[in-house]
Amino acid sequence: MIFTRPKPTSHAPDTSIYERRESVVRSYTRSMPRQFTRAESVWMHDNQGGRYLDFLSGCSTLNYGHNHPVLKQALLDYIAGDGITHGLDLHTDAKADFLNTLEQVILKPRGLDYRAMFTGPTGTNAVEAAIKLARKVTGREMVIAFTNGFHGMTLGALACTGNAAKRGGAGVPLNHVAHEPYDGYHGPDVDTADLLERRLADPSSGLDAPAAILVETVQGEGGLNVASPEWLRKIADIAKRHGALMIVDDIQAGCGRTGGFFSFEGMGFTPDIVTMAKSLSGMGLPFALTLFRPELDQWSPGEHNGTFRGNNHAFVTATAAFRHFWSDGRFQEDIDRRAALLERRLDAIAVEFGLSTRGRGMMRGIDLGSGETAATVTAACFDRGVIIETSGAHDEIVKVLAPLIIDDALLSAGLDIVERSIREALSAPIGVAAE
Ligand SMILES: *Cc1c(COP(=O)(O)O)cnc(C)c1O
């Protein structure tokens, strides 16, 4: 038996400190009211003896699992040797190693020529830098983003985000962004890239010439909608012809989540700017990066910065991750095999229950039709020891973001639980607890 349920809790843990002192803005803790103590590989442990298979992976921040031994050892050695922890953007051994490895292991083999900009360590900061740079270089204000897109919580990135509840938190107008329909938004018969082209070509459409077109190749928070390579090639071509920069936000879909290191590999276009964060450090350390064509590097010194730009501990773990996982094609073969298994299993569930699937690579989910049903499924999974969350405009998609390093048999065992929880949720009236 490779899978064990968490032990039932004997007594309710004391959570009063959180209610007393932590802001009500907290969210995941509401659906997973446990206190976690340890984690390794695909497992998380709570302080009641419960063990959970992690199908959330920090929203794709832990693609290599928790505390991967190779990454952990690299960091322990670095700290033991009194390596620089914080150095603003000074040259450090850790930064040199990171940049050299980025060049040799990631960029060169893919024929990519990008400069790397270290922004503040969160994804939203990488997006802010990307859209600022695009506005600066083009002298234009307007950015085109897409329906259901998610790009972060700071004002510039939030303006590019579609979700009304998130936008509502801004407290000021979110402007200088047009939200155009993503691939498939109007159904399979309408090519929304053609609609965009038509609006941009029409001087009376009301759509101003854009500084940038900002796109996710798979929409992580927005419901695992997938853009086809043809559509993305068209978007790249539209950007080029209309003097805009194409920004791919690879914060969630990158670092192997959809197969390759970058989500757009092999699709026949090269983004002008790419944003990375989440799994970039490989160990869950905060680290973000904005990559762009060298000709776009028109910043003046310090024009965009951040005290924690270039997190040296993250340089160390990211470098170790590049070397360990990306030096040859083996990891990608593993991902492709697991992704095929995931696809097969989700397709079978969808067929059995008349549902539909979403996503690509190891970033896939199943549409339960309503947020309520999806929440019933995730709660039942959690009770059985699987951490899994939802995505989509109505939180209706149960999304599987298993660590990419997961053993195939364990992936299957976790999916058995997802399947069982879906079966129960669809046969029980909503609100009736599973089991
Ligand atoms: C998570 C995410 C962001 C924001 O990253 P933070 O680190 O939360 O600021 C931006 N874009 C995409 C696609 C994301 O998934």
TrEMBL record:
Cofactors, names only: pyridoxal 5'-phosphate
Family as reported in the entry's similarity comment: Belongs to the class-III pyridoxal-phosphate-dependent aminotransferase family.
Protein name as it appears in the record: Diaminobutyrate--2-oxoglutarate transaminase
Species: Sphingobium vermicomposti
GO biological process terms held by the UniProt record: ectoine biosynthetic process
Single GO molecular function: diaminobutyrate-pyruvate transaminase activity
Top-level EC class as recorded in UniProt: transferase
Assigned EC number: 2.6.1.76
PROSITE patterns: AA_TRANSFER_CLASS_3 (PS00600)
Pathway: Amine and polyamine biosynthesis; ectoine biosynthesis; L-ectoine from L-aspartate 4-semialdehyde: step 1/3
Highest rank taxon of the organism: Bacteria
Keyword terms of this UniProt record: Aminotransferase, Pyridoxal phosphate, Transferase
InterPro entries referenced in this protein's UniProt entry, alphabetically: Aminotrans_3, Aminotrans_3_PPA_site, Dat, Ectoine_EctB, PyrdxlP-dep_Trfase, PyrdxlP-dep_Trfase_major, PyrdxlP-dep_Trfase_small
